[in-house]
Amino acid sequence: MKQLVIASGKGGAGKTTLAAAFASIVKNAVFADCDVDASNLHLIFHPEIKERFNFKGMDVATVDHEKCIMCMECKNSCRFDAITEKIEILPEKCEGCGVCEYVCPTDAIKMVENIAGETYVSSSRFGWLVHARLNIGEEPSGKLVSIVRNKAKEIAEKYGKEFIIIDSSPGVGCPVIASIGGANLVVVVVEATAAAIHDMKRVMEVANHFKVPYVVCINKYNINEEKTKEIENFCMDNGIKIVGKIPYDTVVTEAMVNGKTIVEYDKKMAELIEDIWINVEENL
Amino acid sequence: MIVAIASGKGGTGKTTVATNLALSIGKARLLDCDVEEPNVNIFLNAELKHLKDVNVMIPSINKQKCTLCGECAKACRYNALAVLPKDIMFFSELCHGCGLCKLVCPYNAINEVPKKIGEILYGSKNGIELYQGLLNIGEAMATPVIRELKNFSSQNTIIDAPPGNACPTMEAMRDADYIILVTEPTPFGLHDLKIAVEIVKKFKIPFGIIINKYGIGNEDVEKYCRHEGIKILMKLPHSKKIAELYSVGKPFIEEMDEWRDKFLNMYEEIKDEATRYSKR
User: Fold this and answer.
1) Structural domain containing residue B99
2) A-contacting residues of B 226-255, CB under 8 Å?
């Protein structure tokens, strides 16, 4: 089983559009939406939820104000500014470390279990989708990404699927690290813009750091052909394979508005994505 | 006043709004809180200088004193410490720097040492003072860098927040006086906008919406805003010229001067609303 991650560094570069497009073509895959705090893949998959699981986040501190003597030990020991002057816990700042519970001389603080969201295993017209919902203001997105990936792996093993295709979040931090670590290949989606090129290089560094190979897919290449050339030159100089180039086209947004993949929506796009997948598979 | 520009969905135009707004005001401070992928300076082109390191404290174990009792590993909620029969191991990428291991160690075998996870850079150009956070590659936690960066807030401060709806985004917008949510009129844009609106409401900060790439997609974002009584501050048209200027890293007001006044008017409007709100 091979795990493919779609990443970009920059948001809005076309990760979900490409992941969904692959869904129309790759029949033996499980899909995992690892952009857990702004997930969009379900808007195209229209999944039917078959199984749901509570996601236990980090425990959260709670204060028993009857026992609290306002000694401020907890506030002074908290490294995350999660305790106010009135000894109230700010749950969205609490990282669940337990230092406050440990230092409290009157046992007024307890760490309690916290359901931070849900993960789902769903069926769809493209097969299995594993996705998740993080409750508003919850913290451990990296942990949730790992759970989604593990669940996808379980399903892939159970049904003998050949691929896991992971739609990751933008950036290079916690959820992206959790998405890329241990995968077989990253497809870095990059637009033909200066900002996207900058961000692409950072996400490549993350892949290097975790020793995961990567290929590049250029999106909206016709926005600025010079920038496209710049990406092609950079890839050539660094021995990075380009798996394909997708033009800017209004059909991409039209497909999204209609809840369809660009492969379902447009014949020309379908041919293009098929070629891209062949190139990706060669590198997997 | 501190104005944070956030979005939920990535690539909707946060940085475009932040830079063009700052340049329209003329004299402003810009904090690039998208420390994972900072892009403001691609548009500002200031000469950036290192201002300071951002460190977290991590444990350093004195193996002479350590008896391998396992208390620290038991206490650590991030599984960053593991005690083996003959050794103790520390996984720095899992450590949140909370300091609990040092507190629980019965043999005083743990000291804390700083570990650099990122840095703050500074540069100025055309009246804009830019403070940029940069997270080191391979580091998971963006929040400490953002927290440090926000110490540089002052008058007329604009915060470019990271995408998403998780902890880094919340940290970036937490202490703002006003939040601008930038969205695009598509199903993805709307879905992520709704989550962002819930967060902003939780913070009880006044906010409004800018619809970028206006003209693509459908009318659902506008319908949603009307239904929820959310103010639409501005509509930025979907335009080839803006996209091309963006692609080469040029703020569009430099070539489309008529937008300066629109941004300035919007800024005055926001200021009034934030003031009214703070007096409530």
Assistant:
1) 63-108
2) 243-244, 246-249
